[in-house]
Amino acid sequence: RPPQGPPQGCFTCIAKPPALRQASPVLSPSSAVYLMESKSCKGDSLRPAVPCKHSVEKKTMTNPTTVIEIYPDTTEVNDYYLWSIFNFVYLNFCCLGFIALAYSLKVRDKKLLNDLNGAVEDAKTARLFNITSSALATFCIILIFIFLRYPLTDY
């Protein structure tokens, strides 16, 4: 039996189990010598080059198209998340920091749902609560330092 070289053809033809592959015709020694002499680089294979039926099918197939949906850029909507966490942990004046944090989380959810208008409105509300919480808490801290420095007993 002549030695078989690497299988030729496309992956679909090679990947079939040996029982499903078509048997290559057995060559006579004289034709095998002729095939070996006619090939310039690939002299180790004795099987004739048979065109793969799948390579013909690939030429007739159309290229599939890819559809990419482009959504509005939601990364430009600021959610004020870190500022809300800071206000919630350190400057939570009358729970305004908690409300700002809730609106910041709503902005993140609406950005994931691609609701740009709702995200912008909630971002404005979160910024308003953050500004109010920061301003009132800072004002209270300044008042505390003033009253600690100058107690009411001196008046």
TrEMBL record:
Where is it mostly found?
Answer: membrane
Coiled coil ranges (UniProt) are none
Location comes to: Membrane
Keywords linked to the UniProt accession = Membrane, Transmembrane, Transmembrane helix
Pfam name, any one? CD225
Where, by residue number, does the polypeptide cross the bilayer?
80-105, 126-148
InterPro entries, sorted? CD225/Dispanin_fam, IFITM_antiviral_protein
> Keyword Acetylation on this protein?
no
Cellular component per GO, a single term: plasma membrane
Q: Does the keyword rRNA-binding apply?
A: no
Which protein family is it in? Belongs to the CD225/Dispanin family.
Per its record, how is this protein called by name? Answer: Interferon-induced transmembrane protein 10
**What organism is this sequence from?**
Cariama cristata (Red-legged seriema)
Q: What is the lineage of its organism?
A: Eukaryota, Metazoa, Chordata, Craniata, Vertebrata
